[in-house]
Amino acid sequence: MTRRGTKVETVLLQVVTLVLLACAPSARGALPSDNVSVQWNRLFQQLFCTGNGLRFEPSILLAHLNLAQWHALEALKQTGTCTTEEAVVAYASYTVMVNYFPFSSETDIDPLLASQIKGLSKTQKKLAKSLGEAVAKRLIETRQPIKEFLLEDIHDALAARGGDRPGLWGYIPNTPHNPTAPLVTHYYNLEQTFILPDPTEFVEDYLGNLKPPKVPSAEWDASYASLVDVGRIDWPGRTRAMNFTASLYACPKVNVTYNESGCTTDLFWIQAALNALPATTSLYDAVTLLAKMSVALHETQIIIMTMKDGFYFWRPALAFRTGDAHHAPIPNWTPYAYTFFDPEFPSGVVGVTSAGATVLQSFFGEDKMVAFTVGGNGVFGPTCPGSAGQVIPPRHYGSIPAAIDEAILGRIYSGAHYNSSTRDGEIVGKTVAKYVLQHWGKRTPSGVLPDTEYLDVFVKLPTKQQEFVPVHYEV
Ligand SMILES: *[C@@H]1O[C@H](CO)[C@@H](O)[C@H](O)[C@H]1NC(C)=O
Ligand SMILES: *[C@@H]1O[C@H](CO)[C@@H](O)[C@H](O)[C@H]1NC(C)=O
Ligand SMILES: *[C@@H]1O[C@H](CO)[C@@H](O)[C@H](O)[C@H]1NC(C)=O
Ligand SMILES: *[C@@H]1O[C@H](CO)[C@@H](O)[C@H](O)[C@H]1NC(C)=O
Ligand SMILES: *[C@@H]1O[C@H](CO)[C@@H](O)[C@H](O)[C@H]1NC(C)=O
């Protein structure tokens, strides 16, 4: 009895082994120990950060790369196609990368693919290619990034509003922030979300209690006081450490090796994830984490921009120079570093940081203390006010929340944000990331945009403070 059982099992085992051999792992050993997903993310950083391709906002490109990898693995699971996980991820990534970085195709992208599929049989390559390419193309085709055609409408709406209003965003006289300055970031509002419902509804339903302070009010007095000294370039109390923290979040860097540290807040978190993941993580788990993270970072940008444009709160330099009912003007108030030219509330850098942190923390569990390091190669550029020429060593964090604290201080010390707006930015990122995690895989990302040629944009600016008047568009 026992003997016969054993025999059957042995035979079964042999059959199973044969099937597995035919269907999968022969190529595994041929792949580099550094896995495919990681290699494509590093190459993405390098090409994006050195400007060797589409220098568009990274979060949509990054979401495409990591979602394509995830969809490829899901498709492989569903279809049971006889090829390898690594190979479908390689072809999906390749398709996205060639689309966005066509000039690096021969020098960087083709060779990486070639090294990853070495050792695969012809059939395995063919199957992996058709599967990986298909999922990547579907993503790209429905989700082309769109142009900044909205800016003109915002300039017009500002001109029509006429004059400054206390508490509302506007041009800063006698600075580069005048009507000819390039406005930034507002095109995010026109990108569709992958997982979140309509951004305006999301803000109203999940973040309705967040608002910039009323001017004048005791709450505004507190925001004002939180920044008027520490954010200003010539405040005598600035320490070298404060300057350094501000510079991390505000200064251009040179001589950076971008395969180890990204050039944007999004990429900081991708890098953090790559470095924090335990070596035993499966390819599927790593890809899923990176996909969730990229999507959360992308959705957070959209929500932040929707709020910024909806509330139109004034930037510190405008507020302090203009003054208000409780504060005399300080005509020469200058922030430590150049401030993005868009409305202030809430902080985008902190929002994105908090989203990345929330997704990474969720991988390990809420209470786990996770230390990590992000490569910090490079040097602060010559225009960096307090830290020019200083080397940026690798940055070590004792925990994931420690990186949020650093970002908050960085944005305050650089004079870009009031304390209250950084704290609200943290809430925004956390709320969006949690929504993405809870709804992952439940809604098929659609993301088909209306044709921008036929799009009408309506920009109406708030005329009263704390009003939420989102930019509106329709076909
Ligand atoms: C900034 O806000 C946090 C949270 O509201 C508060 O605990 C902290 O004291 C504030 N710091 C300053 C300098 O206003
Ligand atoms: C950057 O690297 C170049 C070439 O190695 C070197 O000449 C230059 O001094 C470096 N710049 C800084 C600011 O370190
Ligand atoms: C990044 O590139 C440098 C220089 O080419 C190399 O020495 C280093 O090992 C690379 N790091 C990673 C993580 O690939
Ligand atoms: C892929 O890379 C991640 C991050 O470095 C690592 O944790 C994981 O073990 C790698 N997986 C495979 C299958 O190589
Ligand atoms: C901090 O930066 C400011 C602005 O460039 C500079 O004037 C000041 O000397 C720096 N402080 C320290 C301690 O390095």
Descriptive report:
This protein is globular. The chain is mainly alpha-helical and 475 residues long. It has two domains: 141 residues, no CATH class; 319 residues, Vanadium-containing Chloroperoxidase, domain 2 (Orthogonal Bundle), CATH 1.10.606.10. The protein starts with a helix and ends with a strand. The chain is built from 16 helices and six strands. The structure holds 2-acetamido-2-deoxy-beta-D-glucopyranose (5 copies). One 2-acetamido-2-deoxy-beta-D-glucopyranose binds next to α16.
CATH 2nd-level architecture of the largest domain: Orthogonal Bundle
Reading off the top of the CATH hierarchy, the class of the largest domain is best stated as: Mainly Alpha
The description of the largest β-sheet is: 2 strands, antiparallel
How many distinct domains? 2
Number of helices: 16
As laid out across the biggest beta sheet, the strand order is 1-3
Mean pLDDT across all amino acids: 84
- Small molecules in complex: 2-acetamido-2-deoxy-beta-D-glucopyranose
CATH H level, superfamily name of the largest domain: Vanadium-containing Chloroperoxidase, domain 2
Number of DSSP E strands: 6
Find the structural class using helix and strand composition: mainly alpha
Q: What spatial form do the alpha-carbon principal axes imply?
A: globular
